[in-house]
Please model this.
Amino acid sequence: MALSAWQLAASGLFMCFLWISKLQPVPQVDKGFFLALLPVAFFHTVGHVSACVSFSQMAVSFAHIVKAAEPVFSVALSGPLLGVQYPFYVWLSLLPIVAGCAMSAMKEVSFAWSGFNNAMISNLGMVLRNIYSKKSLANYKHIDGINLFGLISIVSLLYCAPAAVIMEGSAWSSAWQAAVTKVGQEKMWQLLGWGGIFYHLYNQTSYMVLNEGVSAVTFSVGNTMKRVAVVVSSVMFFKNPVSIMNWVGSGIAIAGTYLYSLASDKFAAEQKAAKAKKA
Model:
């Protein structure tokens, strides 16, 4: 949780630098926006912390495969919370994701129920974040994606930092000494610094791409390739053993996320065409 808080703090500091240097316009917010942001930031905190915990409990590559199941939660919860009823082909596109995750789990050496459960909680948190963004922030379109992510990170830190102090504060000193003994103090600060920077840039880039008006299909392809890159690079970096079943299952799950993206984009286009026809 301390690492999660640090990454959120790094993101907030990065945005403050952009605002002070006028590289990014300062967002105009009021009490109403702040209150609307509270549930969004809370679920972002849940999703982010759970993901970090999951990464510490099993292989990063497998955790990302489990996180590929996020669309399953999105489709399941959009009905009761947003009133969106997806057509059959969107539901069918979820089958490869579920099948791929199951196949990958069958032969995963690092599999741990605690890690799996935290990855699934992360999926739930991120989906609820997106859903409540649509419900709560619909009237604040003047705040662009980059500023929105920065504000979410800052408010998330208000949730995460106190929880980290209460739950882990007593263990920080011994944990820091153990880490410094293993990698050295200078290296530890470097890892924390780069971790915070890359966490922010990864998320900021996603929002920047969306703001640039990139087509939904192009973004879906990029998002799918991002997951491929994360899985492959984590396997190469951490050198965790991966069986043929793992690779096949991972491939099926990732392909399923792409099919889901295409199916949901098709559904969105159909909805838009139906509204235009009525008008």
